[in-house]
Amino acid sequence: MWSRILLVLAFLGLSLGLDQVRYDNYKVYNVRIDDLEQFQLLRSQEKSLKLSSWREARHLGESSDLMLPPEYQETFETLLINHNFSYSLKIDNVQYHIDAQRPKQRITSMEWTQFHTLDEIYTWLDLIESRYPDIVTPFTIGNSHEGRPIRGVKISYKEGNPAVFIESNIHAREWITSSTITYFIDELLVPRNPGVRDIAQNVDWYIIPVLNTDGFVYSHEVERLWRKSRLNSDPTGECVGTDLNRNFDFLWMLTGASSDFCDETYAGPSAESDVEISQLTAYINNSIPEGSIKIYISLHSYGQYVLSPWGHTAAEFPEHYPQMMHVAKGFSDALLRRYGTVFTYGSSATTLYEVSGSGKEWAYAVKGIKIPYTIELRDKGRLGFVLPPEDIIPVAREVTEGFVGMINAAREMDVL
Ligand SMILES: *[C@@H]1O[C@H](CO)[C@@H](O)[C@H](O)[C@H]1NC(C)=O
Ligand SMILES: *[C@@H]1O[C@H](CO)[C@@H](O)[C@H](O)[C@H]1NC(C)=O
Ligand SMILES: [Zn+2]
């Protein structure tokens, strides 16, 4: 009843265009940061130029993808030129690509030609659960902060299989992740080639397509580029949301996370402050047999990386780093061989940037899961979060192939 009323209200809100944030003529720049002075300069201008970071350079010599509204672009470009930044323009009008992601003619059934809403994904989960009851076991880790169920499926063809755990869309705006993983679920149910049939039948897959349900719905209905949860812990009420992938209880807030409510990497008021994370870890602790999960994957976009621990230090590597790299190579090579897409692999701290309190770090250090990754899907920064819907199937196909390579490599290393 309430959900029906809420649906109607949400629909009204949408059709009246209420509160939909628009990004007309917002641009995304790729800016290389060569020295500390440049780094600090950008930091100091963040608020006054309304810079919002799509991807942040954390080491000198790397680039950041920065979005800003039209009224600040001239000032920004002048600043870049005067301070010798090397930069390029990646996206000319963000709204154009957002519109392209929301076709007028909605197809509500899952065909992977559109980005689907949470309701559409859940209706599809209902469908596969009733169609394949022997293979699909539904589960719910609990409700989100705003009361939406956080659903998952276990796909298992037989008893005694090793398990892989995948959480996706922990960051709300990374829509390609839930699109890809639902396609992969479909492949597991109706395998189209022997490699996929093998990993479907001989591995158990626990998959949560949308972990950050509140943020995901918010990114559909209000602010397309929303990343965090919707928990409001800022006493002034100005800035909402926790970066859920900084909220896990391992080295929480040590590095690569922020205590500023307004930052995109705000780690929350305390470790596991957000129910999305506390219920996820409780579910893994209490509802999955200890030791059965061999691989933990957190799906993200973008950048085309397979990232392992450690996130907090580049100075040392975890004990199982050789196995992690062998299995990551299995994933990347399979993709490259069949589709020519390049995924770079390595530890987070050495490959991308330092991070702590993320899911894969918790999975390894607290749960002893030897193969834990953050996988960043396409692209490498041309369109970032606003990939066209035509890319869903190619991305999903290559990731499926990657998972076949990953499982085979894990078997070679005896970690499965
Ligand atoms: C920019 O580069 C030029 C030429 O290399 C140099 O003269 C100038 O001092 C630099 N400006 C800044 C702000 O670093
Ligand atoms: C989950 O289990 C780990 C040990 O395996 C423990 O440290 C942690 O506190 C548990 N978390 C929850 C939420 O039960
Ligand atoms: Zn992410």
From TrEMBL:
GO terms for molecular function: metallocarboxypeptidase activity; zinc ion binding. GO terms for biological process: proteolysis. It is found in: Secreted. PROSITE patterns: CARBOXYPEPT_ZN_1 (PS00132), PEPTIDASE_M14 (PS52035). GO terms for cellular component: extracellular space. Residues 114-410 form the Peptidase M14 domain. It comes from the Eukaryota. Belongs to the peptidase M14 family. Involved in the digestion of the blood meal. This is Zinc carboxypeptidase A 1. It comes from Drosophila kikkawai.
